[in-house]
Amino acid sequence: MIAPALLPDPAPSDDALPPGVALYPLPVHPDARGRVGEFFPADAAAVFPATQWAFGVSTANVLRGMHVHLRHRDWLVVVDGLLWTGLCDLRAGSPAFGRGRLLRLRGATPAALHIPPGVAHGFLSPVPSVFVLGSDRPYDLTDELGCQWNDPGLGVAWPLDATPLLSERDRALPPLAELLRLLPPFALGQ
CB-side exposure of 149: number of CA atoms within 13 Å? Predict the structure, then answer.
C-alpha cells in the first residue's frame, strides 16, 4: 500500500499489524472552544476509495463483532470515547494468518484504521463512544461473515470485567473453525 503524499505514514507499531492493515494518525486542531480535525483527509482517497459512510454510537460495555468482510474494506475513526479493536488475520497464506491483535483507538488522539477483506475485527466500547466507519463498497449483508467474539483461536485478549452487550446477530455467530471453512482465498495487498 502506498500512502499519498499528504496522508501521514501509518503509525509505527510495537506488534506488527496484519498486511494491508494500517493506522494513520489524524491531525487535530484544539482551541478553547474544542477541537476540529479531519477523519478523511482529501488525499486519503488514493488509499481508500470510500463509497459509503456510517456512524456508530455505543454505550459502555458494547462489543460489535467479530466480523470479516469478503470484499469490502473499512476505514474506522473514533470521534469520541474509546474503542478496543480486536483484529485477527484470516487470510490463508498471509504471514500473519491466525495472529490476533488488540488496538486501542481514542477520540482524543484520532487515527484512521484501514481494515482489508479477510481480517476479522470487532469493537469494544468500555465507555460511551462515537465512531465513523467508511466502506469502499455499498453495504451488503452477504459480504459480512463472523465468528464468536471470544473464540480462543482469535488470540484477542479483550479487556473485560463483565460479559459485553452484544447484538442478537453477534450472539448467534458460529465458532472460528466453522467460519474458516466458509472463507474463500483472499488476495493480499488489498
Answer: 24
- Cell numbers 484470516 correspond to 90
What's the CA gap between 88 and 119, in Å, rounded? 6
Separation CA 87–CA 84 (nearest Å): 10
Q: What's the confidence (pLDDT) of residue 13? A: 47
The domain limits of the chain are 22-27+44-182
**CATH numeric code, 22-27+44-182:** 2.60.120.10
- Cβ–Cβ under 8 Å, residues 66 and 86: yes
Distance CA 126, CA 113 (A): 19
| Model pLDDT for residues 42-95, shown as the tens digit of each residue | 888 888 899 999 999 999 999 999 999 999 999 999 999 999 999 999 999 999
